[in-house]
Design goal:
alpha+beta; OB fold (Dihydrolipoamide Acetyltransferase, E2P); 3 domains; eight-stranded mixed sheet; 19 helices; 10 strands; 59% helix
Amino acid sequence: MVGSVLVWWMAFVAIMAAFVVLMVRRGPFFAMICLIAMLIGFFRIIVSFPSFGSGDLGFYRDIGGAIRLQGVVTAQPEIRNDAQYIILEARSISFRDDIEVSGKVLLKLDRFPEYDYGDVLELYGLLGKPAEFDSFSYADYLAKDGIFVVMYGPRVKLLEKDGFVSGWRLLYAIKSFVSRRIQTLFTEPGSGIVLGLLLGLRSSIPQEILDNFQRSGLTHILAISGYNITLLITIVGAFLKSGSRRLRFAATWMAIAFFALLTGLSASVVRASIMGALAVFTLFQGRKADGILILLLSGFFMVLVSPRILVWDVSFQLSFVSTLGLMMIMPVWEKHLQKMPPLLAEGLPVTLAATIFTTPVALYHFGTFSVISPLANLIFLPFIPLIMFFSFLALASSILLLPITFLWVGAAWVLLSVFLWGVQITASIPLAYLKISDFPWWAAAVYYFVVMKIILSRTPRSEPSGSNYPARASLPLSTEKCEKRMK
C-alpha cells in the first residue's frame, strides 16, 4: 500500500544502525537481544496485516452484488454538512444464506435521520473497497483502524435503539453535549475552530478554511497534540497547587486519560498523552525526564497495541518524527538560541526543527510543502493558548450559567477573527504553497541520512540525547514546569 515502502525501508535502516551501534557500545550479547526484540516487533506487525476468511466481512467485499448486513454502531458518528459517516461492527450478512461475520465497515449515509452509538442497524447495499487516489490512499487511512470495507448510500433500517451499552456511551454523550454548547456560543467558522482546538473535531470547518490552514502550514494547530496536554497539565497543577504531591499526580493522570478518551484516542493524542503521563511520573519520582526514552516508550506501547499505525497512520509518523526532530536539533541550536530575542527563540526554532523532520514524510505522502509555514507559525501560534483559554472559560461559565459568559465569548471571538484573517492573508501569498508530485522514497531516505549525519556531527558529546535541554524541548510539558507543578 501507499506509504509502506518508505516505512519499511526506514525501519530496516534504523534496525541495522541500532544493531551496529549496540554491537560497538554494549557488546554482541546485548546487541543480539535487541535485534531479536526488533525482529519480534516486525513479526507482530506482519501478523496484523489482513487475511480474510469466510468469517470476515472483508471476504465478501468483491462479490459484486447487493447484500443485507446487520451490525451495531461502535463509534460516535461523524456528522458533516451533507452526510454522516458511521463505523459499524458487522454481526451477520445475508447472501444466499445468513452468515455470521465480524469486521468493521464504514458507512456513508444521508444527513438525516441521525444515528447514535449503540444503534443496531440493518443495511442493504453494495460492499466495496476504500478508494485509492494519486496523492492519498484512503485504504491506508482506514486500515490503521482495522476498516477494510466501505458501504455508500445503502438502505437503512433501525432494528434497535441503544442496543449496545458500554462506558463509551457516557463519554460520547459528554462529548456531544460539549460540542453542542460550543456551537451555541460561537458561530461558524469560529465554532469549528474551537471544536478543533478543544476536542479535535474538524468536520464542521468549511473546506476553504481548511485549505487556508494547509497552504499556511498551520493544519497541525487543529489537531490535538502535546501542546494541548501541556496546557492540561498546567491547568490541573494550578488548580491543585495547594494539594499534596500525590493528589496532583493522580489528578493529572486522570485528567490526561479522560481528555485522551474524550478526544477520540487518535495517534497524536495517544502519543502525547503517554509522553505526558510518563514525564509526570518520572518527575513525581524525583527524576529528570529523558525525552528520547519517553518518546521511544510511547511509540513502543502504541505500536504494540495497534501495529498498523506504524505503516498506515501518517499522523503517527508525522507526530513521531516532529518530536524526534525537536529532541535532536534543539541541543545543536542551544548556544545560538541564547543570542536570539526571546520571542524568536521561543517559537521559530521549534517550528523549524519540526519542519525539517516532517518535510520528507509530508512530501512522500501528500506531495505538498508550505514555504511560508515557519513565518506563519511564528506569528499565529501565540494566538492559540489565548483562544483556547478564553474558549474554555466561555464554555465553563455557560455550563455554570454565569453572567460573565459573554465577556469570555467576546474575547475569544476577537482573537478568532484576527487569527482567521491572518491565516487567509498568508495563504493568499504567491508561491506560499508548493506541490511536488511523485516524491520518491529513496529521496526521503537520503534526506534523513544527511540530516542525521549533520546533527550527530554537531551535537555536543557532553550532552547525551536524553539530557535536560532536549527533554525540555521535546516533551509535552517542559521539565521546569512539571517540576514546579509536582512540588
